[in-house]
Amino acid sequence: MKIQQFEDKYLSHYSYAILSECERKIILIDPSRNPEPYYEYARQEGAAITGVIETHSHADFVSCHLEIHRTTGAAIYVSRLMNAKFEHKTFDDGDLIELGKIKLHALNTPGHSNDSISILLEHDGKQKALFTGDTLFIGDVGRPDLRESQKNAAVLREELAKKMFRSLREKVMILNDNVVVYPAHGAGSLCGKSLSKANSSTIGREKVGNWALRDMTEDEFVKELISNQPFIPAYFPYDVELNMKGADNFGDSVPAVKLSQTQGEGCDRTAWVVDVRAEEIFKEGHLPYSVNIMEGEKFETWLGTIIRPDESFCLAGETAEQLNRMIRRTASIGYEKLIKKAFVITEGPLKNQKLPAIELKDDQEKYTIVDVRNASEVNEKKIFTNSISIPLPELRKRFTEIPVDKPIVVHCAAGYRSAAGSSILAAELQGKAEVYDLGEAISDFK
């Protein structure tokens, strides 16, 4: 038996291949959008992919389960509670998949969502591993509030939190302490609030180090779980629905986005230009209604936060190579079909400026300072006493709250979010006030 872990570092996502060495068969768990790494692993092992298990309908990435089924004939296993729209086999309490000496047991572990399952792996009759999806993370558990688009969301959130309390204690904590825990996410994921950087653990270690497994009442657990959760990107409900019906093939959908030879033509106020270039280059010249979401580790998260899934957008980059990379990354959250046009940008009529730290230090009252960090960051430490706090995910809706009688300075914690935030404000305000990005110079004020 072999267990292979795959990582998408941009979405802090882990997926898995379970190989039966005697039968040369593979079961995948929670695969990402691009199936090629799994095909390559199967080729290297001389094995066939015979099944795909989804621990739930994911909110933060799009899975390739349907594409793998179409390509290989592999069965897709999901909980009956997912209400999946594709051909599948139900996999719930009492259900079993046998693969040589491997037995995979389904455990219904609702809490993150009602359709959440965990998969217990036995080998040679011994409990070996638990694939926990978004139920148990290393150091944390899955948040219960990602179905916010549903009616009675607050009630549902508390109901799910109570289910999580019971799932952990009745299904997870009763397993042997030496069972290895393999989660679907690590540090950086918005599916929890305090995930560890570790990519695996054991039941025993989590009983000691994970806050959610300590001795407490249900009420104490619920209060802690639902408090101070991070924001919910706009694309999360969209991906839940897309995963429930199954996405188009990655290999067809990505090449369908063609690179245009004309810069900006057809991009107008009805479609934002998502400019992925470095902020220094962007500020030297860009198109109207551009938002600077730089190529970086959290591109997907901020793209799916700033651009809603009911919008289209143009994608601008420095080179064709960069654009091709970013189209593939856009597809990982199912946004490639929203791309109206993709093109290389070499110049633009608009410029933005960074504000030297010395100018802000000399006279802070001369400026309106906008803090686009998350509310939890501001509560922990406000950097400028008189700043206006509008988290970046809310900026497009709330920019009218910002007075325009003085120049505006935008800051975050390190410079990535302020590049996006300042570009949004400059586009929305259309010259009503000068907009500056403090950028990395924020470090001078901490």
UniProtKB/TrEMBL annotation:
Xref: Pfam families: Lactamase_B, Rhodanese
Record-linked SMART domains: Lactamase_B (SM00849), RHOD (SM00450)
Record's keyword terms, sorted: Hydrolase, Metal-binding
GO molecular function, one term: metal ion binding
Residues passing through the membrane, by range: none
GO terms under biological process: glutathione metabolic process; hydrogen sulfide metabolic process
Phosphoprotein among keywords: no
Domain Rhodanese: 267-352, 363-441
Coiled coil: none
Name of this protein: MBL fold metallo-hydrolase
